[in-house]
Amino acid sequence: MTTRWGIASTGRMAASFAADFSSATDAELVAVGSRDADRARAFAEERGIPRSHGSYAALLADPEVDVVYVATPHPQHHRLALAAIEAGKPLLVEKAFTATFAGAQEVVDAARAAEVFVMEALWTRFLPAVVKAQELIDDGAIGEVRAVQADLGSQRDFDPSDRLFSPALGGGATLDLGVYVINLAQQFLGIPTTVHAAGSTYPNGVDATVSYLLGFEDGRSAALSCSLESQTPSRAIIMGTGGHIELEPRFHHPSSLVLRPNAGEPQSFSLPPRGVGYGHQIDEVGQCLSLGLTESPTMPLADTLAVQAVMQASLDQLGVEVREDDSVQI
């Protein structure tokens, strides 16, 4: 059965997501919503989307839309997600899920109470190379996982008017890039018992480059970093007692991985995603809805909360203030 999608927003991320629907299975983009009716109409006409709405409320009320992808800036996710849950509309929420841990907890509590499907759009978990890494680890290919190393960096010129650097719009390295490295550690190590963050900030107070050291039970650890100031190698290594797996750059949308056991020859796996890669998470949402699930077993809400908690603790240590924007008009 075809899953009918609507997109809330007409920004850069919405455009990228819309362009990759051709790589999904049994999914159709049927509507877009924005607070600006003209922008919604232009977005729809350019992409052949049948309907546009001049408010998010109208999009959420559209009976022809089965699920909504929220692509607004991070601080607006909280308000929009709560409105969608109240309307009973399933959601895929762009990462970072919310701007704050408290906001994420409120959305998760509301979704669970209403039994409405909600998933964070951490597309990396659904890409073939990462799925293969999980399978290899589950099969014992590298023994017990003991540590994760990962970095993700992209050099951007500081522009306080750009969303990436705007405090009001949830800018900064952690919410845009750190979410990937922290998610990877959470996926393969679980919930940390200690979080230590060190880094730099821009003149307006948002975080620029951050390193995270996470401690886990039994001495396991993760050494992670992200940056908006430097184009880093952007690779990830998952280390175990029997070897390690490298997700080759850029690890958050890898096309290949290498298994290097302690004993034996390395094995390379070429596993490119379909299209850009968003189609894999689109398929996951469709499958979950067809099964009547309210959470994804691959990207459950508990994992979202665990990642949000690490980001919140890190930003607090750096003295970076983040807030939800509940003034956004629905």
TrEMBL record:
<dbReference type="GO" id="GO:0000166">
    <property type="term" value="F:nucleotide binding"/>
</dbReference>
<dbReference type="InterPro" id="IPR050984">
    <property type="entry name" value="Gfo/Idh/MocA_domain"/>
</dbReference>
<protein>
    <submittedName>
        <fullName>Gfo/Idh/MocA family oxidoreductase</fullName>
    </submittedName>
</protein>
<dbReference type="InterPro" id="IPR000683">
    <property type="entry name" value="Gfo/Idh/MocA-like_OxRdtase_N"/>
</dbReference>
<dbReference type="Pfam" id="PF22725">
    <property type="entry name" value="GFO_IDH_MocA_C3"/>
</dbReference>
<comment type="similarity">
    <text>Belongs to the Gfo/Idh/MocA family.</text>
</comment>
<feature type="domain" description="GFO/IDH/MocA-like oxidoreductase">
    <location>
        <begin position="131"/>
        <end position="246"/>
    </location>
</feature>
<feature type="domain" description="Gfo/Idh/MocA-like oxidoreductase N-terminal">
    <location>
        <begin position="4"/>
        <end position="120"/>
    </location>
</feature>
<dbReference type="InterPro" id="IPR036291">
    <property type="entry name" value="NAD(P)-bd_dom_sf"/>
</dbReference>
<keyword id="KW-0560">Oxidoreductase</keyword>
<dbReference type="Pfam" id="PF01408">
    <property type="entry name" value="GFO_IDH_MocA"/>
</dbReference>
<dbReference type="InterPro" id="IPR055170">
    <property type="entry name" value="GFO_IDH_MocA-like_dom"/>
</dbReference>
<dbReference type="GO" id="GO:0016491">
    <property type="term" value="F:oxidoreductase activity"/>
</dbReference>
